[in-house]
Amino acid sequence: MNAPAPSLNLLDRPASSWRAALDDFGYEPYRGDQVAEWVFQRGVFDFERMTNLPADMRTGLASQAAVAPPEVAQRFVSSDRSRRYLLRTGGGELVEAVYMPTGERATLCISSQVGCRFACTFCQTGTMKLQRSLSAGEIVGQVLSLLSDAELPPKRTNVVFMGQGEPLDNLPGVIGAVEALQDPAGPGWSWRRITVSTVGLVPALAELGRLGERRPRIAVSLNASTDAVRSELMPINRKYPIADLVAALRDIPWRRRERVTFEYVLLRGVNDSPDDAKRLGKLLRGLPAKVNLIPWNPIETMPFARPDQDAIDRFRREALGSGLDVLVRYSRGADIGAACGQLQAAHDPSVSPTTVSAD
Ligand code: SAH
């Protein structure tokens, strides 16, 4: 008979607490630091391969705990070198994450939930129901899985919570992951390298604000300049309308030179008029804001269209003219379904590990 699966995924806790965890199991505390070094410096997750641990400790530990990042079920490689991953959690569900290299750096786009319950009408993930929230360990595990699958380890990594799910609908998992990524005994990343993107859950935003120096960067998916349009696109706006959202953001103690990012998906004839751009400028006046315009990535079944290039340029000029710091962001990985809003993990639990290349 197989031994029962260990119940403790060490990744659910920040690495500096692994000393205490190993102490509880009867090992010397410094062993916790050794395990953390294997995991975060060398990308080794299997105790059996941690050669500076005594042999009996390796087998003993494996029956008590695990370092269990999600498995790569499938990898899609884009012609622009970004990679979309289908990852299988310990519970068997599939989630998606995207690896986007730029020179020696990489940005990882990771998921906070399996599915999503906010049903934004232009978003592919919004057509799924929420299955469940991911644990801190499952979120940190996505980072580890992608980095250990990279051809060349990047010199610097940023992570954005812009995959599946609404991060602020999973505060315990997301805050746990953010703390684990910042832990000096683990990855030791600064808050600057971590961005949490939200539909704008007002009470949870206030809670993020209370994290103080540990708070990650914040991005808000605004996507409209009036409540009427925003409520059509993002049903959550009926509960937390634009004025409440902006007020909550004004209350956050922004750090020196820090800015909040507003994402604005451009939809032809819906939210892309010059008047929208002007109203956007007014709405955000006085906030330390920058705006990312994302031309909508088409999803066949949806009644939307991406504006033509002239309309995109006109919107950008108008927004600049109204005092906004604005950039147009063209999504990467569109050829492999990795672009913003396209993520929807296949539900087929039998997918086997394969690589599909787009070129
Ligand atoms: N729930 C969070 C995290 C998801 S981030 C949030 O909404 O912020 C996903 C980003 O992609 C959001 O800014 C969303 O507005 C955008 N998006 C969704 N569908 C898109 C699509 N089809 N094309 C372009 N951007 C899209």
Describe this structure in words.
This protein is α/β, with parallel strands linked by helices and about 350 residues long. It has two domains: about 10-65, DNA polymerase, domain 1, CATH 1.10.150.530; about 70-355, TIM Barrel (Alpha-Beta Barrel), CATH 3.20.20.70. It has ten helices and 15 strands. The chain has helices at about 20-25, 30-40, 55-65, 135-150, 170-180, 200-210, 225-235, 240-250, 275-285, 310-320; strands at about 10, 65, 70-75, 85-90, 95-100, 105-110, 115, 130-135, 155-160, 195-200, 215-220, 260-265, 290-295, 325-330, 355. The strands form three sheets. It has an eleven-stranded mixed β-sheet, with helices on one face. Strands 1-2 form a two-stranded parallel ribbon. A two-stranded antiparallel sheet has the order 7-8. S-adenosyl-L-homocysteine (SAH) binds near residues 299 and 340.
How many separate domains make up the residues?
2
Radius of gyration: 21 Å
Gross morphology: globular
Extended strand count: 15
Q: Helix- and strand-based class?
A: alpha/beta
Mean pLDDT: 93
Instruction: Give helix and strand order, one letter per element, not per position.
Output: EHHHEEEEEEEHEHEHEHHEHEHEE
Q: What is the number of helices?
A: 10
Please give the largest β-sheet.
11 strands, mixed
Instruction: State the end-to-end distance.
Output: 46 Å
The CATH superfamily name of the largest domain is: Aldolase class I
Here the CATH topology of the largest domain equals TIM Barrel
Strand order of the largest sheet: 14-13-12-11-10-9-6-5-4-3-15
For the record, the CATH architecture of the largest domain stands as: Alpha-Beta Barrel
Tell me the β content: 15-25%
CATH class call of the largest domain? Alpha Beta
User: Any ligands, ions or cofactors bound here, and which?
Assistant: S-adenosyl-L-homocysteine
Helix content: 25-40%
Poorly predicted tracts of residues: none
